[in-house]
Structure formats: structure tokens, C-alpha cells
Amino acid sequence: MNQAGIHDGMWVVGADAGDYVDQYGDIVTGDLVVVEQSRYQGSEREITVKEIHFFRDRYELRPVSDNEEHEPIAVPHDHSPDDDREVKIIGIVLTAYADLKSRRK
User: Fold this and answer.
1) What is the pTM of this model?
2) Which end of the chain has less neighbouring CB within 10 Å, N or C?
3) Which range of residues forms the domain containing residue 81?
4) Which sequence ranges form a coiled-coil region, renumbered to this chain (predicted)?
């Protein structure tokens, strides 16, 4: 997410996705979201930050990064997975900050 100003070692502060929608309205293209991917009935989980883009038949969760290893995730609107993976938007990024004091260690 370095192209979005979020670098290694920074903290991300977010709001619960449901609470955010209730308070501020729909998530829109370009929002930074906290994504949880799980497999094997939740025994393997990964949490990451992506930029969301909506399309007629799907939404895409895109990395905003120079790292070519980070790939977008396409999710059909019917949420039918093409593998054992479940993808959920669990939060909306509100801010990010660096803990400068911990850099002295």
C-alpha cells in the first residue's frame, strides 16, 4: 500500500464495515478497506488492506503498491467462490500512522 502512503511498520486505524455503512453510507470505489481472506473453514486467515473498485458483475480489491507480488482479488457479486477461499470486507481504513518512538529500538 506504499502508493497510498501506508508503509511497512505503520499502524492502520479502521472502522467496522457495518458500523461505517450505518453511519456514513455505502462503501464507494476508491475507498481503502480491510479485507479478511479465509480458507479451510477459517483455520487459515489473512488480513490485508486493499482499494475497492465496483463493477457491474463484481468488485475488485486492488493493492496500491509497487510490489508486483501483491495481486488484486476479484469477487463476483453473488459471492460464489471459485475455490475454498472466503473474502470479507471487515473494515474501512480511516487513517494510518507511524509509531516513531518504536523506531529507536
Assistant:
1) 0.85
2) C
3) 2-97
4) none
Residue-wise pLDDT for 11-36, tens only, equals: 999 999 999 999 999 999 999 999 99
Name the one residue in this structure whose C-alpha cell is 453510507: 25
Whether 86 and 37 have beta carbons less than 8 Å apart is answered as yes
Give the other-Cβ count within 10 Å of 32's Cβ. Answer: 21
Q: What is the CATH number of the domain that holds 55?
A: 2.10.109.10
To which residue does cell 463476483 refer?
76
102 lies in some domain: no
Q: Are 86 and 63 contacting, i.e. CB atoms less than 8 angstroms apart?
A: no
| Contact criterion met (CB below 8 Å) for 32 and 93 | yes
CB 91 within 8 A of CB 31: no
C-alpha grid cell, residue 78:
453473488
